[in-house]
Amino acid sequence: MSLPPGFLDELRTRVSLSSVVGRKVTWDMRKSNQGKGDMWAPCPFHQEKSASFHVDDRKGYYYCFGCHAKGDALTFIKETENLGFMEAVEVLAREAGMPMPARDPKAAEVADRRSQLIAVMEEAVKWFRLQLKTSAAAEARAYLARRGLSPAAQDRWEIGFAPDGWHGLQLAMKQKGIADDLLIGAGLCAKSDKGGEPYDRFRGRIIFPIRDGRGRAISLGGRAMDPKDNAKYLNGPETEIFDKGRNLYNHAPAREAAGKGKPLIVAEGYMDVIALAEAGFTAAVAPLGTAVTDEQLRLMWRIHDEPVIALDGDAAGIRAALRVIDLALPLLEAGKGLRFAVLPGGQDPDDLIKAQGAAAMQAVLEAAQPMVSLLWKRETEGRVFDSPERKATLDKSLRAHLRRIADPSIRAHYGEDIKRLRLELFGQGGARVPAFRQRNFTPKGTPLPPTASARQSLLAQGQAVEEALREAVILASLIAHPALIHRFESALERLDLTGEDHNALRRLLLSHADEDVASLQDILRREAGDALDALMRRPHVQIAPPVRNRADAELATLCLAEEMAKLDAHRAARREVEDAVHDLTGLADEGLTWRLSKAAEARHKADHPSREDSADMGEDRAALSGVLQAMIDEKVWEKKR
């Protein structure tokens, strides 16, 4: 929804930032000056003992001199409560006693429906908890006792029981006046194929409530009591309030515990999380019946900078860990990593804690390995590299993985670690990699120091300017059409942008992807006004079709896809030439000629798309691609005598 002009300014004026922050921190009164609104505390965003977190009440901004977190009251609520922008506005407005502006009727209807479904889910949780106390649940209580869960622990985790009947919950909710369509909408019941009344989805199962980051019940997980049941664990279906790929089990308590310094542990299932938390590892979460998704990975990084993936030591657990590696590589950035703790002997955390206690689990966590180690093991364990061909195959595979890392600095450090491990594997003697091969092992995209002539060349200057212009058009198009941010989110995250201004705008676009045009403009103007002005002043941006035609989303989609494809193709071509020039010592061969011709071909295709595939951006594509072709014609890889 769009907020009226001045609403946010008045909201910030009415609410003291120190009162908002004060709920989450303990002020250092020796360092603070309350009369001047100059407050200091240990930072709530990272573990520390000193008071490096500064709140300036008069200006309404906070800044941490340790982790560099900064923002205003809205930013603080968003980051600490894991809320969206409008949700944070609503929280702050309630505190200030300001009524929210009238919402769009359709948006209000959707919000009311979601509130109803959450209320229905809460009623269902209460009913299932009551059923666990009945005689029908005797076997379930015995099972929980064998798993080491006392009645008090069962209450802490709100564990319930679904009787083995088709309409138990449905009839109980009907007596409370809850309509069948709400039970179906919440995923608690399913429609009958025979036209009868809806039937219960969960039957004969121990019930685990699933809550979101705000503590609201959004779905259920159920463990079958019948060992012959086809599905040992069953989660509720996707609904208006539950997206299993965007939520984590035990999210809110784990976030609070991680904020107090506990390591974030990612386990496989409900019982693992419960066992970990009951043993003192309170910052434990689990995905919800699926492999970890990129949204869940980003969610974990919002909770902790370096989650520990604690997976079962069996074959399935190892496969799950390797899938996480493939998912995480393109998303890595400075300060955001993963470590992997593989449990011994095929055990899960619950097994290990019961058999050897919390100290054994702590030892496993302390021995957790960085992701680069697991990547290396995956590519090398059980394989013999006794020929040049096998070694070359390993090199090719590793380069392919490293090229997927978007951050140039992280990519370079991964390359250094892999190079070290490679030398250890192949030995320091006769199997040592020749110097030019060592340079070539550095993954594509890693910055290499340019020569003086290269710095002054038309190619270097022209391509840098051209790529910066393309980045500007992409960012400006998304600012004009924020509804397209989610569609191009992955591509936008992978872009290796030039300059801090472009990176700052990208961060804000990704953080506020759900805002409308007016709200997004307000946020960008407030948090990156200079960068926004510089971007929109560019003549190339002002004439871009998506910026000039803000009502045409289809045209914007086509132009964004074209610009991103061109940028990717140009950079790939440049990297291919750079690799070739650095790899050779003056002798051209057919392999190099083929690589350069393919690079030119890829760039030519990007610059000359068919009319069916893209919208005409009005550029001289022949001139752009001609630079690379001229390099090939002049055989720039040969040393000049």
Give the topology, please:
Elements: H1 7-14, H2 17-21, E1 38-41, E2 53-56, E3 61-64, E4 70-71, H3 73-81, H4 85-96, H5 105-131, H6 138-146, H7 151-156, E5 160-162, H8 168-175, H9 180-185, E6 189-190, E7 199-200, E8 205-211, E9 217-224, E10 233-235, H10 251-259, E11 265-266, H11 270-278, E12 284-285, H12 294-303, E13 308-311, H13 315-328, E14 339-342, H14 349-356, H15 358-366, E15 369-370, H16 371-380, H17 388-403, H18 408-426, H19 435-441, H20 452-456, H21 458-480, H22 489-494, H23 500-511, H24 517-537, H25 539-542, H26 545-548, H27 553-583, H28 590-607, H29 621-633
Parallel strand pairs: 11-12, 11-13, 13-14
Antiparallel strand pairs: 1-2, 2-3, 3-4, 5-8, 6-7, 8-9, 9-10, 14-15
Function: RNA polymerase that catalyzes the synthesis of short RNA molecules used as primers for DNA polymerase during DNA replication.
Protein name: DNA primase
Catalytic activity: ssDNA + n NTP = ssDNA/pppN(pN)n-1 hybrid + (n-1) diphosphate
